[in-house]
Amino acid sequence: MRISSSAVSLTVDDVTASSKFLVNHFGFSERMSADGFVSLGRDDAGVDLVFLRRGIEVLPEPLREQRAAGVIVAFVVDDLEAEQERLRGEGVEITLPLREEPWGERLFMVADPNGISYELVEWAAS
């Protein structure tokens, strides 16, 4: 098997709100869109993010009314402190303050208007 690209689809109530959040605060750009659907990407991200409006008919019926929940989208970055300060300066609420885990992961979290959690990660030097 050869995988040529990857995407994660998240079902939300307000596609535009999540899309704008990633475009404005994380530098994603719109790759495709239609009513109730947007696909966003960054050349350096390794994965595209797709937002689907809850109830949209392209989803299998058992999934249509479900919302993305319990999902954390993680981005590994080079300067975690600078990213935290940049986002604070842009008015983004830090939902989990910067911390370091015992296994060397340094992280903080934010959430978009639909409640999707984004974790920014930097690995501590050994």
From TrEMBL:
<protein>
    <recommendedName>
        <fullName>VOC domain-containing protein</fullName>
    </recommendedName>
</protein>
<dbReference type="InterPro" id="IPR037523">
    <property type="entry name" value="VOC_core"/>
</dbReference>
<dbReference type="InterPro" id="IPR029068">
    <property type="entry name" value="Glyas_Bleomycin-R_OHBP_Dase"/>
</dbReference>
<feature type="domain" description="VOC">
    <location>
        <begin position="2"/>
        <end position="123"/>
    </location>
</feature>
<dbReference type="Pfam" id="PF00903">
    <property type="entry name" value="Glyoxalase"/>
</dbReference>
<dbReference type="InterPro" id="IPR004360">
    <property type="entry name" value="Glyas_Fos-R_dOase_dom"/>
</dbReference>
